[in-house]
């Protein structure tokens, strides 16, 4: 979903333009380091893989009921080229689409880059980086690709709403449903495509190392951002809260934004602690069984 | 493929074609910011913007119907949102949404139809856009047609192989296989390109055939555009919050 010019308010696009300029400069420097050698050894590779993403979108995947979907590609690029390089390739695609194909605006380019080339690629890489080893590999690839598309689309919708483009509530639900469906299609397409690529040459898909503390920190920050944004969206939809907690609605609706966000974060910490404790006990029992055997 | 048309248009010889890309890009940015910050109710300002674009279109000697038709590509998207806005009871905003997106798209199209991509890249380079990013864009554009054609051949071949009877799951996996093969061919092509570039002594940037020069007429054009846009923006329009 490429936002055209004229849809975002000046405050929104100016902020996102600044954010995009800084992040792309950092990504360009990191991409060069990611590609092993300091010179322009793999610049042609990035360009040709961008052309590959364009061309791969012509290949139709039948998804039932007579419709077909196609690859979007952010997650696939992140898994093969690495996240920084994937961001650069996606940025190049967006710039070319805005200037040559009249797809997406110029002053809102920063917004589109933030949605698809930065947040979309990050969301399309983190789950793979965390769980991409061992048994749950396919599930991690599926989750990465789905998250990539859904996060980009939700961000675009949120930016339109902040800019004051009115959006009736039922339409909001319909579009959220469509985004999730699009995410599921991208997930299925990416999983089969990654398997096909690995059959040809297993070295083309990067095998994630064990996540270190920095990856964990990025994942934690991303989770916190998702919770805060989610709480913001949920508080703008009081009907859903009312259905969940009849009678309590007024009390929650009167909370300040900060209260809601911290309540969401506290909830997330609680869930994390539960998972950690359950995980410890289970793995502890497994260890004990292995020792006794 | 429709961007070939843009390539042909950008090789013209009008006044706008001969101007420096930096002057055109700067004027385009000022135009887009002016349109974006105009309040929905300032209809007179939108008319003035349209007049300025009409003058540019006339000076560029481009085919008017072709340009307007291509700029209308954005309209299905913005018309959808405009209709939603209309139903929510804000007809003025709905109208301005369609006007803003169409005028902005038209301005970008006129700029790109009078500026070859190489010149645009040169202008972005002097605006300090990271060099690796610009190189990636140029490689992408060069190999877009090659790889797309390969994808089309593969699609045709797949259609020839599979009968009408093959079911969904098999076709899904066949499509995934096609993506995999396309990936492999692209990757190998990139390796070959890199070796060929080394053999020819690539220095990290593409040579420019005609080095761009910022002349007096470019400065005059930029000043005229800025003055006209400032006059419309400050004289006729309210600020859009």
Number of strand elements of chain B? 0
- Percent in helix of chain B: over 70%
| Highest-level CATH class of the largest domain in chain A | Mainly Alpha
Following the backbone from N to C, one meets helices and strands of chain B in this order, namely: HHHHHHHHHHH
Pair of chains with the largest interface and how many residues each contributes = A-B, 73 and 81 residues
Uncertain runs of chain A are none
Multimerization status? heterodimer
Largest sheet of chain B: none
Give your account of this protein's structure.
The complex is a heterodimer of chains A (about 290) and B (about 240). By secondary structure, chain A is mainly α. Chain A has two domains: about 210 residues, Arp2/3 complex 21 kDa subunit ARPC3 (Orthogonal Bundle), CATH 1.10.1760.20; about 80 residues, no CATH class. Helix content of chain A is about 75%, strand content about 0%. Chain A has a two-stranded antiparallel ribbon with strand order 1-2. In chain A, strand 1 and strand 2 form a beta hairpin. In chain A, helix 1 crosses helix 5, helix 2 packs across helix 4 and helix 3 packs across helix 5. Chain A is globular, with a radius of gyration of 21 Å. The N and C termini of chain A lie far apart (about 55 Å). Chain B is an all-alpha fold and about 240 residues long. Chain B has two domains: about 150 residues, no CATH class; about 70 residues, no CATH class. Helices cover about 75% and strands about 0% of the residues of chain B. In chain B, helix 3 packs parallel to helix 11, helix 5 crosses helix 7 and helix 6 packs antiparallel against helix 7. Chain B is globular. Chain B starts with a helix and ends in a 5-residue tail after the last helix. The mean pLDDT of chain B is about 85.
């Amino acid at each position: 979903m490429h936002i055209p010019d004229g849809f975002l308010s000046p405050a929104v696009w100016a902020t996102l333009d600044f954010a995009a300029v800084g992040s792309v400069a950092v990504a360009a420097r990191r991409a060069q380091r990611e590609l092993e050698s300091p010179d322009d050894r793999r610049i042609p590779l990035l360009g040709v893989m961008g052309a590959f993403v364009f061309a791969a979108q012509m290949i139709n995947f039948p998804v039932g009921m007579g419709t077909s979907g196609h690859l979007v590609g952010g997650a696939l690029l992140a898994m093969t080229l690495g996240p920084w390089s994937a961001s650069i390739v996606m940025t190049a695609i967006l710039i070319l689409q805005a200037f040559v194909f009249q797809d997406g605006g110029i002053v809102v380019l920063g917004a589109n880059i933030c949605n698809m080339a930065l947040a979309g690629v990050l969301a399309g890489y983190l789950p793979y980086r965390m769980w991409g080893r061992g048994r749950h590999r396919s599930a991690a690839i599926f989750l990465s690709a789905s998250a990539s598309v859904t996060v980009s689309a939700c961000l675009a919708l949120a930016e339109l709403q902040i800019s004051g483009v009115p959006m009736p509530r039922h339409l909001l639900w319909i579009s959220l449903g469509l985004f999730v469906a699009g995410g599921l299609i991208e997930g299925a397409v990416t999983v089969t495509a990654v398997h096909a690529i690995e059959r040809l040459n297993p070295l083309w898909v990067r095998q994630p190392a064990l996540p270190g503390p920095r990856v964990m920190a990025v994942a934690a920050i991303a989770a916190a951002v998702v919770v805060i944004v989610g709480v913001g969206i949920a508080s703008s939809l009081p009907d859903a809260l009312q259905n969940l907690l009849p009678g309590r609605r007024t009390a929650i609706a009167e909370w300040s934004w900060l209260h809601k966000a911290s309540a969401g974060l506290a909830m997330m910490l609680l869930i994390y602690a539960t998972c950690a404790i359950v995980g410890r006990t289970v793995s502890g029992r497994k260890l004990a069984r292995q020792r006794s055997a | 493929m429709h961007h070939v048309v843009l390539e042909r248009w950008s090789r013209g010889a009008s006044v706008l074609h001969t101007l420096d890309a930096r002057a055109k890009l700067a004027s385009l940015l000022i135009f887009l910011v002016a349109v974006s910050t105009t309040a929905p109710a300032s209809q007179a300002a939108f008319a003035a913007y349209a007049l300025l674009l009409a003058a540019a279109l006339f000076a560029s000697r481009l085919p008017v119907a072709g340009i307007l038709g291509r700029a209308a590509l954005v309209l299905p998207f913005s018309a959808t949102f405009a209709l939603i806005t209309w139903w929510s009871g804000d007809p003025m905003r709905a109208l301005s949404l369609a006007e803003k997106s169409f005028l902005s798209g038209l301005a970008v199209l006129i700029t790109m139809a009078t500026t070859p991509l190489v010149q645009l890249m040169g202008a972005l380079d002097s605006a300090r856009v990271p060099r690796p990013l610009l190189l990636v864009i140029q490689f992408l554009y060069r190999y877009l047609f090659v790889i797309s054609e390969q994808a089309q051949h593969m699609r045709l071949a797949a259609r020839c192989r599979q009968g009408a009877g093959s079911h969904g799951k098999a076709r899904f996996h066949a499509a995934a296989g096609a993506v995999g093969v396309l990936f492999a061919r692209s990757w190998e092509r990139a390796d070959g390109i890199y070796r060929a570039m080394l053999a020819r002594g690539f220095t990290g940037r593409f040579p420019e055939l005609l080095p761009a020069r910022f002349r007096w007429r470019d400065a005059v054009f930029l000043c005229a555009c800025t003055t006209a846009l400032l006059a419309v923006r400050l004289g006729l329009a309210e600020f859009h919050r």
